[in-house]
Structure formats: structure tokens, C-alpha cells
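re the bet — no i am not wrong, look at it urself. input seq straight from the record:
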Amino acid sequence: MSLLLEQLVTKLKRGDALVLPTETVYGLFADAMNETAVNHVYHLKKRPRDKALNLNVSSLEDILAYSKNQPAYLKKLYQAFLPGPLTLILLSNDAVPTWINSGLDTVGFRLPSHPITREIIQQVGQPLIGPSANLSGQVSGRVFEQIIKDFSNQVTGIADDAAILGVDSTILDLSRPQARILRQGSITKQQLLEKVPELVFEEDSLSGYHEMDSSI
């Protein structure tokens, strides 16, 4: 691991927030298990506290460690689309802190495919939060220098504007007997069904989306 990555991992472990690239937009990352660090991100983004956060993880094993009652096809879905622009919503277990899912019984999982961000998540060794790097209610961050200005130079990170596609991840809710697409991103329902025909969708699987804005 390079000296720069070591320094960034150290910052995260001590509770700092970092702007890191994903394959969708930039995220504002911090240690999900550190309540003070999570509160700092809420403060920086001016994000309402009732807006739950996703866990950014590095493996299927991580997803299993923080969820329960997973569908039988989860591994197949993981192998087909992750890491990549897909957010999975599952029932949370007791390992998920209340400051992450705002008292809900579900939690979102994200596995960014950007190699540097993936490496950082792996090296930290536990989940990170990573909501989009913008002030709450504004357009998701896509230009590194502008993001730093928007946060009044209170954060640092890694710039890779070329990696930013600007299309948010598809949010797939698997917490109920039938799946729901809560946000249509770059992965379509048809693509999901082609790879995982076992998926059964609710009739109108886009109707439930309203609480997960500012997600990557």
C-alpha cells in the first residue's frame, strides 16, 4: 500500500471524513462504527438525522455480517453485479449501530468498484459510510475541487473526476418477500432478471422511493 493510502486509512481510523471517488459520484466517507465520525458527516452535509446511511463494505462476507434473512440468490446477485453501482437493502442485524439506520430495521450496502476506494475500505477493516459528497439537497458531487470548496476546505481526499459517471447506483430493496427497485440507476430491472431470474418484483417497484436521497 502506498504512503498516501496509508495516510488516508489512518485519517479514517482516527475519525476524519474523506472525499473519495466511486463509479457513480464522489462520496463523503467515514468510519461507520465511530459515532462521532458519523455525526461529523451529518454536520458537514447538513443532512437530516432521520435520513439513514448505507454501509460501504468490501465483500459478501461483510454483507452477511451486518444483515439477516438474506434471500437465497444473494450470492448469485453479488457475483453478477458487485462491486458496482448497485445498493442492496437488507434486514439489519444487531451489529448495525442505531446511528447508521436511524432506528429502521433495514440497512443499505454499497461496494464501490473504484480500485482506490475499495482498497481503502479493505484496509480500514470495517464498514464506512459514504453518502454523496455534497451539501444535503444539492446535486451529487462530481468535480473534486468544487466539492472541497463547497465544504469550505474542511475535508480532503482523492481526486479522480474521470471515474465519475454521474449516474447514481440502482437501489434494490431485498428486505421484503418481493424485491423493489427504490431508485433506477445504471443497472436496470431487465439486467437484474437476466442474471438472477429468481428475483420476483413487486408490481410497482419504484413507488416506495422517497427517503434515500443523497446516496451514491
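see?? The helical segments are 3-13, 35-45, 60-65, 74-81, 98-101, 115-124, 144-150, 189-195. told u. also The first helix runs from residue 3 to 13. so pay up
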